[in-house]
Design brief:
- The protein contains 1 helix and 22 strands.
- It is mainly beta.
- It folds into 2 domains: 148 residues, no CATH class; 101 residues, gp9 (Jelly Rolls).
- A hairpin with a 6-residue loop joins strand 21 and strand 22.
Length: 256
């Protein structure tokens, strides 16, 4: 009987009496794959479009088998990172870390990075905020990538080069309004528990001189109404928490 392969890491499983003279090589490869799953680190370059990780059978160089994945590169458009949903052995259930080390284009752009399991719809892809590090669980049997932020990251919106920005769940945004008003649009299709933090980092003046407008995205409410709110106090910092369709985004914190 020929070899079969395990789920998840696709380790080679040798049948009794098979692969004479090759057990050492196959065992060493399997041990390398287990080492990747426990402590492996790899960098994956993103630019635009989708990059699918590799879970190839018996491959010690398959990048999707690493524990820690750092995405790097300068984006020229929205990019995504996909974990395969299955291997030859069946569903691929993977737990791994993803660190964002990308450059999100020029100051005037706001390219995004999303994480997903193969077969997952665009609407349910999970955003990776700029500079964030996340613990990711990819379930092959039910295509859905869940994400827990270990380091939320930070992105700055400076009115001299960019006056609008669309946030993603988990964003921590420093806003500089010295030169102009800035509008931050909250994420579309949020999930209950999503958070976005916005803070005044202006070198002088600040929100009292040029306000920061926080705008809803589509039909989602802010404090029970489908309308924007204005941040108008210098050194103001707010965290918005998505509570559900009725009240929508609520101010969890509001300090100055």
């Amino acid at each position: 009987m020929a070899s079969t392969y395990s789920t998840d890491l696709s380790l080679e499983l040798v049948a009794t009496g098979e692969k004479a003279g090759l057990w050492g090589t196959i065992t060493n490869t399997n041990l390398q794959l287990l080492q990747q799953a426990v402590s492996g680190y790899v960098e994956v370059t993103l630019s635009t479009g989708n990059v699918t990780l590799d879970l190839s059978d018996g491959s010690a160089t398959a990048n999707g088998k690493n524990l820690y994945i750092k995405v790097v590169g300068t984006l020229s458009g929205n990019a995504s990172l996909t974990m395969p949903a299955s291997t030859t052995g069946g569903n691929a259930n993977r737990v791994f870390f993803v660190e964002d080390g990308t450059t999100r284009g020029t100051a005037a752009e706001s390219w995004t990075v999303t994480l997903l399991t193969a077969g997952q719809s665009a609407a349910t892809q999970v955003p990776l905020p700029e500079g964030a590090t996340a613990l990711v669980y990819s379930r092959g049997s039910v295509p859905a990538t869940t994400l827990g932020m270990l380091e939320k990251g930070f992105t700055e919106v400076t009115a001299a080069s960019k006056t609008t920005y669309t946030a993603v769940a988990g964003d921590q945004i420093g806003v500089d309004t010295v030169a102009n008003i800035v509008t931050i649009t909250l994420p579309a299709s949020p999930s209950q528990g999503d958070e976005v933090t916005i803070m005044d980092v202006s070198a002088s003046n600040g929100f009292a001189t040029n306000k920061c407008v926080v705008a809803p995205n589509g039909s989602e409410n802010i404090q029970g109404a489908n309308s924007s709110i204005d941040l108008t106090t210098n050194n103001q910092s707010v965290t918005l928490f998505y509570t559900g369709a009725s009240k929508g985004w609520q101010l969890k914190t509001n300090t100055a």
